[in-house]
Amino acid sequence: MTMLSVDNLSVTRGGLPVLEGVSFTLGAGRALVLRGPNGIGKTTLLRTLAGLQPALAGTVSMPAETMAYAGHADGLKAMLSVRENLRFWADVYATPDIAPAIEQMNLRALADRAAHSLSAGQKRRLGLARLLVTGRPIWVLDEPTVSLDAASVALFGTAVRAHLAAGGAALMATHIDLGIPEAEVLDLAPFKARPPEQGGFRGSFDEAFG
Amino acid sequence: MTMLSVDNLSVTRGGLPVLEGVSFTLGAGRALVLRGPNGIGKTTLLRTLAGLQPALAGTVSMPAETMAYAGHADGLKAMLSVRENLRFWADVYATPDIAPAIEQMNLRALADRAAHSLSAGQKRRLGLARLLVTGRPIWVLDEPTVSLDAASVALFGTAVRAHLAAGGAALMATHIDLGIPEAEVLDLAPFKARPPEQGGFRGSFDEAFG
Amino acid sequence: MMPELGKYAVTVLGSYVATVALLAGLVALSLWKGAKVKRALARQEERMRKNG
Amino acid sequence: MSIWEYANPVKFMKTSSLVLPWATGLAAACLIGGLIWGFFLTPDADNFGSTVKVIYVHVPAAMMAINIWVMMLVTSLIWLIRRHHVSALAAKAAAPIGMVMTLIALITGAIWGQPMWGTWWEWDPRLTSFLILFLFYLGYMALWEAIDNPDTAADLTGVLCLVGSVFALLSRYAVLFWNQGLHQGATLSMDSAQHISDVYWFPLLLCIAGFILFFVALVLLRTRTEIRLRRLKALEQRERMA
Amino acid sequence: MIALLLRDLRLAVRAGGGFGLGLAFFLIVVTLVPFGVGPEGGVLARIASGVLWLGALLACLLSLDRIFALDYEDGTLDLLVTAPIPLEGAVSMKAAAHWITTGLPLVLAAPVFGVLLHLPAPAYLWLVVSLLLGTPALSVLGTFGAALTVGLKRGGLLLSLLVLPLYVPTLIFGAELVRRGAAGMEVRVPLLMLAGITAATIALVPFASAAAIRVNLRQA
Amino acid sequence: MIALLLRDLRLAVRAGGGFGLGLAFFLIVVTLVPFGVGPEGGVLARIASGVLWLGALLACLLSLDRIFALDYEDGTLDLLVTAPIPLEGAVSMKAAAHWITTGLPLVLAAPVFGVLLHLPAPAYLWLVVSLLLGTPALSVLGTFGAALTVGLKRGGLLLSLLVLPLYVPTLIFGAELVRRGAAGMEVRVPLLMLAGITAATIALVPFASAAAIRVNLRQA
Ligand code: HEM
Ligand SMILES: Nc1ncnc2c1ncn2[C@@H]1O[C@H](COP(=O)(O)OP(=O)(O)OP(=O)(O)O)[C@@H](O)[C@H]1O
Ligand SMILES: Nc1ncnc2c1ncn2[C@@H]1O[C@H](COP(=O)(O)OP(=O)(O)OP(=O)(O)O)[C@@H](O)[C@H]1O
Ligand SMILES: [Mg+2]
Ligand SMILES: [Mg+2]
After folding, report:
1. What class does CATH assign to A2-176?
2. Which whole number is the average pLDDT over F191-211?
3. Chain Cα centroid distance, residue E31
4. Quick one: which of B115, D156, E42, E111 is 20 to 30 A from A20 by CA?
């Protein structure tokens, strides 16, 4: 069953097209990894899918309220404890229980620590636990394993696999190994936007101009 | 020739010891990689070496003004261009020229872009270019290759090797492969601070109390 | 027994009442917080003794 | 044995638990004795009428307000120089008492001003300096509250107390320069020419002693609480690390 | 949505920006005014209502600039926009939290500060009424300004520049209400205007704020 | 060290916190005052010098809170502390940059604003002199407050609470200097005091600020 389908999508950053003609579909229980060199437009693509910015062309279709997004920043409040941070997002998404997320991301020992006193990797783990409490089936993740040690990467792999097994789907951008060998890989390099002379899209201002 | 020697160092975070009895030396032309799980105290150790926080016990000896530190955050000003950011640090460290750093980190195409419009990996590359303009022989780096793609990791490896060949030294904490196989590795897990009952240090207040 | 305060009764009584109320409030707050912290510390020490 | 031994928290806890009951008892005795003496057994004054009785709360509170700040300055310096935790915690414990004393001086003064000067508040230098002192207390306490690492908070509030003291003093001169006031001069001096009559003087002395002892007892109590709180934090943290 | 309100209140209390601070700032402004304009009771009484209103405005302003900026910087705003609560509601909750931590304490404490400035006796009631009616509009307009400047570092001064002109009608009717009330004059017009402005602001401005945030995120 | 000054100035210009904004804020405060206190020229002239000084103080304050916070958050402060320039010098440069972007424009523009408030003619010279002598102290004390609160999110209001009481002597002598100068009275005492306070502040306070920053970084 297809949960997310992207058709001929072009995305812009700062008014300039960065990727064009991206198409893929994501079914229940499947994971897709986006790869590509720095600056190719992975973050831009994911933000577009998350609805944070409009697409230049093409269509994105998925059922409403099925997607959870996690970007480069974790969205943690430094002054709140790990538990309070999770509790807040659970309330926003109206999920009843945060205990499983704390267990799965191995945060029990840290649950009452203020977020600002966590190490870089511990913060990231909390950011991933937030995903679990959204209860959303489609995960859209931007470099989820940055700063994680090997054990935590494995933990993340387990969480993703459990999510897929429960009928979810995951779309992830990364440069490093996520520990999910069964995921398909989409290299974005071929979709790099061409300059207008070669038939690429024109930037928002170019277009209006000529 | 020894450039940095650390002897029986214990470091604290938030008033509590996290690592104890760490000793190593770093000679000219050598690189040392610190490893260890999230939260073991890599960042804390590096910050202590950089003089940002006092050590609990032990000694750190290195010649004055020989160390350049780069932490989790890059210290970039979003509103300044890549070139202006580098120029500023070059002025602070009184190094004459930023062109080689721009070349080495492949930033020429981005040189006049404002830092806020860089992608995560591009920002990181700029952070590393900053190191090159310090002109300092000892590099102390906290997870330098986060967010970098394979090509940029290789670029970083080349820069480190050039630095070592020029008689520099590098101390780096990381979870992932840095692409510098000749570096020695120090695993910090054995140095985890013991609780006081087992003969470990007491926290700053415990000490006064007991 | 009450001294004759004349037209300034409100002034004098008001000052005394305000002073005593503020001091009493401060003392009550200090005692309350003291008891609370003492209890919390006892609980914590107990727990740490049990766990090793 | 050096005096610094008392800066050891354990030693401090032991000694203070011995001193505390005595200080409390003495404070209660002086305070109640002095206030009763002053309130019931002193005559009205010609120029003040019965409002002269306000002096027994107003003046001791005003004196304590200043002296407590000085005490905080000294303990902050001890912390910054010798790093005795008890010293910093004593400063933290004293600040709310000082703030309340300032508030008492301000409120009783305002109540007193209404019949005497015909206004609740006048921008007289004495009153104005007290208002500024109150602000310094507020800032100091707010900074303690805002920082959650206890040693960092101790360091920063210590620096603030130091800089603040200098500027509090400067403000006093500035305010005097700015407005000559209505307030009473210092009649507490030992100079007999302007000495207030003994009838008021002795109960006032007793009240002042009472306020001082009250402060000592309360600051001991609060410092004990702060020490426990500090230890609690240290233990909690160690538990988490384990 | 209540979760957001509670979280913001909790953050305000934790992060050294709690209830007391707005008040303390207000007290300081009131203390500083006589240093500037001289201590004579007559002059002070004339300008008292204006000073109190200006103080409220500034206390509001100083606590505003980080209202969205913090959420923007740590990525929370991205996540909130993609969360299943309407952004307009989230913005209103932010404004409510801001009002509870700064506006409300000011309303309650204003009479005490009135004493310091020799505010004439009949003005006290009107001071409280005018602040109670007017300060919610200050918070809501403030969130609008904060939404416009959310992407900027050092938005502080720019924010004031955008927001202060929007405060003018509230300030005029608020201060006028106090002055007329104190003088025993007719107060119906400023009272109704003040209430009307606040009601309309609360109802409409959050839509503008939400739109501004969406635009700012688009290029982040 | 000059590099730091230049960088800060450039950032101020780029990031929407440049020269103009302090002035614009000042202008708005000056315009709002008549709305608050009523438009009679007599009252305005009496309070004009005080209002101008208070406006300068607030314009300073609003631009302060991010003075170190931004550098702290993006990691620059860590790097500056490990760089080969003394932190005390860096702090002074920050204060200088702040003064150039907020204090100096106010000094230059104050006479214009004086006109709006019917400032009496002989006061203009003294207004400029007092602001010129006094505002550097405001910037330096402001950096001290900013250094104390650098680790805190939403430090804005707390910062004001810490800093404003420190501004009292400067404000009093500054406003008094203008008042006396305008009235043709002796100005030597306030003039000397103002200059003395500013000189001592510039010489000593940066050490306290640098110490506060080091303490704050220790636990970062
Ligand atoms: C809010 C207002 C007031 C404040 C902050 C205040 C402050 C002080 C202070 C600090 C002292 C101690 C002086 C010293 O020991 O040298 C004092 C003493 C005194 N105050 Fe006030 N005062 C206030 C209002 C008043 C008023 C309204 C009156 C009466 C008209 C008054 C009458 C006195 C008297 C008689 C003394 C004792 C003078 C002496 O012998 O030192 N005060 N006040
Ligand atoms: N505000 C902006 N204005 C103009 N260009 C921008 C802006 N932000 C990003 N870009 C550019 O858009 C391109 C795509 O950036 P994006 O962040 O999507 O890359 P990415 O694939 O996520 O890279 P990384 O792996 O480094 O995170 C980059 O070349 C970047 O420099
Ligand atoms: N402010 C603080 N107060 C108390 N404990 C803290 C504070 N900051 C960090 N810690 C704890 O100190 C320990 C060491 O943290 P540190 O950041 O040095 O780890 P790290 O090895 O760099 O981890 P990572 O690989 O995740 O970056 C961690 O367990 C962390 O939770
Ligand atoms: Mg990216
Ligand atoms: Mg780390």
Report:
1. alpha beta
2. 96
3. 20
4. B115
